[in-house]
Design a protein that fits this description.
By secondary structure, the chain is mostly helical. The protein is built from one helix and no strands. It comes from Arundo donax.
């Protein structure tokens, strides 16, 4: 369970970082 949460959290951070850099 924690693995899924951790993976989702990292994916979310990746998307946020990508959006910020894209701006």
């Amino acid at each position: 369970m924690p693995s899924i949460i951790s993976k989702a959290f990292r994916t979310n951070l990746f998307l946020i970082t990508r959006t910020i850099r894209l701006s």
